[in-house]
Amino acid sequence: MLGYAFCGSFCTHRRALAELRNLREANFDVLPIMSETVWNTDTRFGRASDLKQAVEELCGRPIVHTVAGAEPIGPSGNLEALIVSPCTGNTLAKIAGGITDTAVCMAVKAQLRSDRPVILALASNDAMSANLKNIAALLSRKQVYFVPMKQDDPVSKPHSLVADFSLLSETLRAASDGRQYRPLFL
Ligand SMILES: Cc1cc2nc3c(=O)[nH]c(=O)nc-3n(C[C@H](O)[C@H](O)[C@H](O)COP(=O)(O)O)c2cc1C
């Protein structure tokens, strides 16, 4: 089974949902996970209830959305890979700093406690400012992989990087072989 975790990069949820659909069509069994922010927040990009419904229908399982709900991922050890898509700057920084106060961070910690792969599809306006050091830290962390990313708008958002979500499945395949898919920066 795969884990597929949504963080609060609301403008990329449509793309993340499309990749989740691709994984389900490729017959992956998927445990859906949401950060508390995603679980509770309506934005101009959509309503939380609509996203929850779409994700639960696709996965055929209830969404894990609390720290207590995500904790059993560690002892059960049954995720062959955990995909965080999208991964916010907030969650990236917490993973790098060993902070575990959301369902997604708990799922990542649980997965990494037994050296199982975690794949991050980052989307953050501070990826090349406040969070650049955290990308560097996680690039050298065992079993952490990134979906290749690019500067989506170098003029208006000079510090932003966004994953190319269409490379998620290939990144997963490489990670399953213990490799970071490259090029990492597009
Ligand atoms: C409309 C909206 C869009 C946002 N987009 C992003 C984004 O693309 N990337 C990001 O890192 N944070 C974004 N944020 C901020 C995160 O939602 C915020 O840091 C939140 O605490 C993340 O929590 P999580 O990482 O637990 O999901 C956005 C917030 C809002 C309200």
What does this structure look like?
The radius of gyration is 15 Å and the shape is globular. It is of the alpha/beta class. Strands 1, 2, 3, 4, 5, 6 and 7 form a 7-stranded mixed β-sheet that branches. It has one domain: Flavin prenyltransferase-like (Rossmann fold), CATH 3.40.50.1950. It has 9 helices and 7 strands. Helix 1 packs parallel to helix 3 and helix 6 packs across helix 8. The site of flavin mononucleotide has 18 residues, from helix 2, helix 6 and strand 4.
Which key phrases capture this entry?
binds flavin mononucleotide, alpha/beta, Rossmann fold, 186 residues, seven-stranded mixed β-sheet
Give the helix/strand layout:
Layout: E1 2-6, H1 13-25, E2 30-34, H2 36-40, H3 48-59, H4 67-70, H5 73-76, E3 81-87, H6 89-97, H7 103-112, E4 118-124, H8 132-139, E5 144-146, E6 149-150, E7 161-163, H9 168-176
Parallel strand pairs: 1-2, 1-3, 3-4, 4-5
Antiparallel strand pairs: 4-7, 6-7
Bound molecules: flavin mononucleotide.
Flavin mononucleotide is lined by residues 7-11, 35, 37-38, 43, 45, 88-91, 102, 104, 123-124.
